[in-house]
Design goal:
binds calcium ion; about 270 residues; binds D-MYO-inositol-1-phosphate; seven-stranded mixed sheet; alpha+beta; five-stranded mixed sheet
């Protein structure tokens, strides 16, 4: 993507994501209408929908040739990643939003012909905006984030993942995941994929893995984390499918192959 166009799109996206955060903060203490989607743990509120509607309206008014791929139904039906696509999760961490009133984020990843060009993850309660522009670095509130250190051993790493993967499940052998937890320095779970990816960019965790997420959970955060040198693949070490749900590992490059070969591939269950 042309650098001038990238900057123009970014400055609009930044303005809108900050405005969307203001919508959330203003309505934060209003009574919420909470609905469940695929399961009792898969939640949505009218504020998730309002934020997505707000962003989709702005994008369509300003960039009519761009496409939108988003969680709550205001986007387009995509058949490919051709063109400029805004991949949006209006609130990543809806359970935290409802139960904790913090630890959630608005996530936007802007892809051009399949390449992640711009990422924004806005923790609007802490007022922390993480951003990344392909080839320009990653930032937290306009402060450039340093590139990852050259070396890291797995036993020195803090990894983010959902504790669910330590329970019996259909995708990965939980005993292998338990071995991984024993090997690493520590594990963390925050309830927002977007924030975990932003935390990799910030250098406060060294990786994030999960077996099943939608493109809007990871699109923004991945662009940001990749800008400080983190690498992203699926559980098989292949590029993540950004059109459908997939597994994902984003981490410091020094620990990527060990996690994939010694843990994820060994633990993977064939359905
Ligand atoms: C969820 C969060 C959470 C992850 C879930 C996602 P949502 O997104 O990213 O960290 O474990 O799988 O669905 O539903 O709050 O947008
Ligand atoms: Ca999400
Ligand atoms: Ca969401």
């Amino acid at each position: 993507m042309d650098k001038i166009i990238q900057k123009q799109i970014f400055s609009q996206a930044k303005e809108w994501v900050l405005a969307a955060g203001e919508i959330i903060r203003t309505k934060m203490n209003d009574p919420l209408i909470i609905e469940t989607k695929s399961s009792p743990k898969d939640l949505v509120t009218e504020i998730d929908k309002e934020v997505e509607r707000f962003l989709a309206t702005k994008i369509r008014e300003t960039f009519p040739d761009h496409l939108i791929f988003s969680e709550e139904g205001y986007g387009d039906q995509l058949k490919s990643l051709d063109g400029t696509i805004w991949i949006i999760d209006p609130i990543d961490g809806t359970m935290n939003f409802i139960e904790q009133k913090r630890n959630f984020a608005i996530s936007i990843g802007i892809f051009h012909n399949g390449v992640g060009e711009i990422g924004l993850v806005y923790d609007c309660m802490a007022n922390n905006l993480y951003t990344g522009l392909k080839g320009q670095g990653a930032f937290k509130n306009d402060q450039k984030l340093p590139h990852l250190t050259e070396n890291l051993k797995l036993e020195e790493a803090i990894l983010g993942f959902n504790h669910y993967w330590l329970c019996e499940n259909d995708v990965i052998d939980e005993r292998i995941m338990q071995q991984l937890v024993k090997k690493i320095l520590g594990s963390r779970t925050y309830g927002s994929a977007a924030l975990k990816l932003a935390f990799i960019a910030e250098g406060i965790i060294d990786g994030y893995l999960t077996m099943n997420l939608a493109p809007w959970d990871i699109a923004g955060g991945m662009v940001i984390a990749n800008e400080v040198g983190a690498v992203s693949t699926n559980l098989d070490g292949k590029p993540i499918n950004m059109l459908t749900r997939d597994s994902t590992l984003t981490c410091h490059p020094a620990i990527q192959s060990e996690i994939i070969n010694d843990y994820l591939q060994k633990g993977k269950k064939v359905n």
